[in-house]
Input
Amino acid sequence: MCLGIPGRIIKIEDASKNLAIVDVGGVRRQVNVACIVSEERPAESCVGDWVLIHVGFAMSRINEAEAAETLRLLDELGEAQAEIEAMRLNAAGEAA
Amino acid sequence: MKYVDEFRDRAKAAILVREIELLVATMTIPEHRPLQIMEVCGGHTHSIFRYGIEGMLPKEIELVHGPGCPVCVLPIGRVDDCVSIAERPEVIFATFGDAMRVPGSNKSLMQAKADGADVRMVYSPMDALAMARGNPDREVVFFGLGFETTMPSTALTILQAEAEGITNFSVFCNHITIVPTMKAILDSPNLQLDGFLGPGHVSMVIGTAPYAFIASQYRKPMVVSGFEPLDILQSIWMVLRQIKENRAEIENQYSRIVAEHGNAPALEAVSRVYELRAFFEWRGLGSIDHSGVRLRDGYARFDAERRFAIPNVVIADPQSCQCGEVLKGVIKPWQCKVFGSGCTPETPLGALMVSSEGSCAAYYQYGGIKKHVAAE
Output
């Protein structure tokens, strides 16, 4: 109920009722898209968008740039760790 | 699956665990206790147990499992009200599956169904509305349950019923709100919490601004977090950094989903359909002011509480249960007198043993008992 699942909008079924078809890991289901449409983003323009679905409603458009940024930050942490580890080993080597 | 698998990457999780270890090594830890971070949301509790996140953390950090499972905090009296509505011959009672097994004073919805009541599980409130369309001679009642995450979906379904002129559909509204709940936790005596993981999907609806008081008035750090293992580890790391740097801020780890001001169409539907109740009863926590919503007068015809006479009796939690103390983080699930003996997932006494998002059920299912043995 609270966890939600990502899916991709593949078709608008009834724009007047904000109903769309999403693909969730190969399963297709009707969802309500009222929470992600606006005057600037009418239902027709949402096909292809990744959304997070809760109890049959697309509740949020997934921000691809932010998702990539979070993962990039983690990569940077990993690189910094590797570098520090290499320095530490190198220092230990020189000391010995 | 896209946007799921990337956030379960083992190598990246190891990097974060290392960062957490490095950070903790440089921090001042309270003398007689670990640093306590509460995850408010039951979804986080579920992920923490499912991925064994507690076991990855240094011993200086303890996760306290908060009250954010709407099924778990549903009081016995409200379950009795559900059963009373469901047992009316004209009613089809539609509910999320999670709520089926919550014990009432006599029976759960599942037992009511076994006794002949027409109780049906639905995935979405829209499925309940479809049932109303398909059964014009019956009264379909949807059990509206959850924090702000599911509140808009129920509201939008009511608006859809209104638009279509459907007259045999109503909602038994038990939606609850997060901010008064957080205040109740922060005001409870003996509070030792050092920081919070903020609920990701509630925040997707309400944004991060409503939590400002947690930082400004209570000086506690909070990081709104996603639900995958990397999200939770990164959020713990961010909370620890705030503690170390003596900052108390509301930060957002889950920026791919949560915007600062939340979701405008969802909030619009919520404010159109609901108003705050003066108070709402919680299992384990008692009555909390303004912590629940009901339907506005303009939507009275969709309000099951006004359409049906319901008992609406407040019933005390079973005395043997210590759900309230577990919810507030005062005791761990295995320290409850009936954990694993009188109260198990098959025969739950307390609500925390019912839902997979309840901390007792999570401990029971994912080896908390072993930890209990090890701890003693």
Observations:
- Residues 84 and 90 of chain A are 10 Å apart (CA to CA).
- The interface with chain B takes residues 1-4, 6, 8, 17, 25, 30, 32, 34-38, 50, 52, 54-57, 59-60, 62-64, 66-67, 69-71, 73-75, 77-78, 81 of chain A (CB under 8 Å).
- Chain A has one helix and five strands.
- Chain A has a mean pLDDT of 91.
